[in-house]
Prior knowledge:
Helices cover 74% and strands 10% of the residues.
Amino acid sequence: xxxxWSTFFLEIVNFLILVWILKRFLYKPVMxxxxxxxxxxxxxMQAARQKDQEAEVLxxxxxxxxxxxxxxxxxxxxxxxxxxxxxxxxxxxQLQTSIAQEQEKARAIAAQQQQERQRQYEQQALQNSLRxxxxxxxxxxxxELESRLLDKLLAQLQAMPExxxxxxxxxxxxxxxxxRVQTAFSLDEPQREKLRQALQGLSEQPxxxxxxxxxxxxxxxxxxxxxxxxxANLEDELQVFAEFEHNTPLPTHYE
Length: 255
């Protein structure tokens, strides 16, 4: 078989031309398209990896946030429990304080009531004793007892200190004084005269005496001399005793 070298070279030339044409018009665009596609795929994969990373970050943040929420809820529950416990203790302390105050008030009221009852019992006992004493003295009272009380009063007037005499004289100076003398029994004229002379000795001014019978005095006399009140009778003595015991005036008349 004889080789046609001219045909062979032409075939080679045709093949090279075909390769050049394919490379020029087909291979290069295909490779560029493949490269572009690969670049797009790499970009998509990079974006996907970035998305995965962001999702992982978000997942971690969510998990951490959930843990933080659990810790916050636990801390809130513990704080609420502590606040409730403190409030319970505070209310319990207030209740105990209130109970103690009420108990103290109750004790104070009971003590006050006891004192009031005791005072009432003492006052009642004193009134009863005064009634009994007044009744007893009323039965024992007589003109003779009154005469002895008047003698005692006259002796006291004569023995009055000089300072009291001057004070009484100064109080009566420059005034016409009416002396009111009350006695339980009616006085005879000699008794009245003794009283006039004794009272006149206490004043530099003339005195006018008025005599009045007052059976409530039981026995003795009560004398109003200007601003002065002289008494030597059973009724006033009982009244002074009652006021001294309770520092409050008690009834002055007894049946």
